[in-house]
Amino acid sequence: MPPVANESVRFAFTSMEPAPEGPGAKPPLQDAARQLLAVVSQLASESGPQRRVAATLDDSLERDLAIDSLARVELMLRIEKGFGVRLPEAAMAQAETVRDLLEAVCAAERSGPIPTPSAPGPAALPLAEPSSDAVPHDAATLVAMLLAHVARHPDRPHIAFYDEGERITTWTYRDLYEAAKRAAAGLRECGLVAGDAVAIMLPTSLDFFATFYAVLFVGGVPVPMYPPARPSQLEDHLRRQADILASCRARALVTVPQVRPLARLIQPRVESLRWIATPPELMQHPAAARIARPRGDDIALLQYTSGSTGNPKGVVLTHANLLANVRAWSERVRVTPADVCVSWLPLYHDMGLIGTWMGSLYNACLLVLMSPLAFLARPERWLWAIHRHRGTITAAPNFAFELLLRRYDEALFAGLDLRTWRLCANGAEPVSPDTIERFAKRFASHGFAASAMAPVYGLAECAVGLTVPLPGRGSRIDCIEREQFMRDGRAVPAPADDQHPLRFAACGPPLPGHEVRIVDAQGRALPQRRLGRIEFRGPSATSGYFRNPQETARLLRDGWLDTGDLGYLLDGELVPTGRVKDMIIRGGHNLYPYELEEAVGALPGIRRGCVAIFGSRDPRVATERLVVVAETRATEPEARHALVKRVNELALALLGTPVDEVVLALPHSVLKTSSGKIRRAATRDAYETGRLGASARSAWLQTARLAASGAIARVRRACHWGMQSLYGLYALACAASLAPLLLLALLFTPRGDASWSVCRRLLRLLLAVTGVRLVCRGFENLPATGPVVLAVNHASYLDGPLLIAVLPRPLVFVAKRELRSSPLLRFVLDRLRVRYVERFDQQASVADAHELAQAARDGESLLFFAEGTFSREPGLQPFHLGAFAAAAAANVRVVPLALAGTREMLADGQRLPRPATIAVTAGPPLVPAGGGWDAAVALRDAARSFILEHCGEPARTDLR
Asked: What does the DSSP 8-state code read for residue 178?
């Protein structure tokens, strides 16, 4: 999004305007510029030691003046007080320079004194009466959950959304359902089908909810992504998102109009991406009646990790995973339909998406929502929303509570009543015991109960939550001996007179149905108060990372999942202490960066929250060097030397060792994730490769670089397409050359096995001359003699010819009767003794089933495409029972046969074949356990399970 600019601002000092008169008049533009520069300069000077800053209109707020997102909150407050205006939240978030702020000030309407939050605001919504059937306890999927609410109480308020200006828009369950159906119709119009991944790059808005459910309604997989915040972050943001789009094979991207032109620049880098649309475009279509009915084990969400310790990974979460977590969380904290959840958390983050929205949706309790931007601009709005709506449950990371403490002003919170606030979950980042205690003390006079604060622990690999304290218990701070913990990992309670103990927040026991253990490097379970790796298991646990077997293998061990975190157990509660990759081993001591980072960030002249401490391997001494990277604007040698000295003093006091190197870096040198977590590993890589603090490029240059990379990707794709087209034309020419020979041979060859043998030789020749890479496995499972039923998945028109070429002995194909409509095809199939079945006439279909069972009894070996048909989109469809009923009735073994790669080579509707590797895998024979219905179902389920494991495609959502 381009920075705001205006010619009237550019010539602020070249034109003299007469001073306005009368009450409420704005100051001349020249005076406004001087006043604004004074405010900005004062704030920038406060963050730089021993230096006065003289800001100019073209200074970058972040790069030149070191005003980050948290400092913008204070800047907004000072500007609004100084000018008597109310600035739009978007202007504060998107402003790049002081000049952009000046235009926002000049554009804001003067409305007299800014109303304080204690002034009458939006009235609380009337809450619906809780009912005994409000919670859909029997719902197996997110779709079933929403449909149950629509059926039981369609007009019950679900979401109350605050937009800018304190206006509230309320959606009922019916509103969400209808909007999602319209958007789903738009997705189908774009060509989306079941199994497709759809990236949702939208800000917090009602459109997000409609789009999310629209994707589920078409049987797709939602992939939430965070939208870019400012032009200075454009290139890094879109390049990072391009990797995610390619990883999840997104077919469509739904985003806001401002992002769409930029997203098109990265489209050539994502081969799967076909459509980029906005919510209004999707919703202009009439709602369709058809809604996907997924199963509990279908993928419901790909939640990409924040990347604080490396590249983002797509966590696979099924409907069953998500509902298991929501139900366990609800049981632990005793959520009821009478609760009111108040949130500002972003919807691309698991705590906001799953913890607050899906938790509220499941429990039929009202969700009062505002955007993260609204909270960052005016944090007090969050607490006033709790006051107005009698909020009972919230969740937020630790920095939110710290921000409210820094923002505290008696005038802002006069009359605030927080007595209804019964649960305040503090998680998603390291929990500070100091913040917990100070927040409870500061807001006690407003009715906040210290017992409401609940430090929690969770991770995307467990949907969202893993451990939560019992309600009403409050926070538990464990004080332990510093030296012994750093030396051998024993969390020994500190004596009462210890002046510098280590303090950690206990995050409660695991959720119902989940388990947590602490293990050493060899995977052996450790007793309580012994530091080790945190592992867990339970119904919320992911099956792995999407299309990332290497990382999945690192995640799973003997049924347990490795969190990548360190911690210890205390009376059954988990006490997290930090990330495994963040621990620094120096001289036999285990050092943890969090406490020192917080202390260094509090130093005058250092940017709070912009400090990274990590270990850099030193091969000379076989240990790690302790490196501190801290952002500062200090330039004078004396000031910088004083900062280095203070950092070392803190390191000695807290860690018992000096640091090896203190790097005082420019603003934005310390890399962060979308949720504001320090990316220590990435910052360490930048330090070790000399890229630390690389200056940000202008927005136009970033756009040009993205366009160039997109052009290169287009050229590569064009070359790739050209090579594939040449191959396809060659393969078609080979097939066309052999076709007359095949027809002639069949004309003079006896019907049955002889025709099969002729076809087999010619088709194997075709595979050879076209260079098809063929892998056959498990063929020893195919009986050499005797009747057998082969159950095969169906993905392409190539499947039949391929099976004739590779199977070691002739079989009788079972095909749909419609194939007889083509005389030429009927001639070939008849020569191969194909048996036909009726799909649409029920009586004829039953008769066909009896005939097939009798044929199996008579010794015929039958080959069934168990899905009945195929489509362009990948995925294993439900199996028909015909093959398995025939096998059970005739007491004939079933051999499952999995095909992989034929859809990739020639998908439905594709004109030219593509080069591909084709795998044919035969499973062990399945023996019927009887001749009835139950035996047929058991055969079907066993065969489908084997084929699903070896066909290389996911299960298709069943559309009904």
From this structure: H
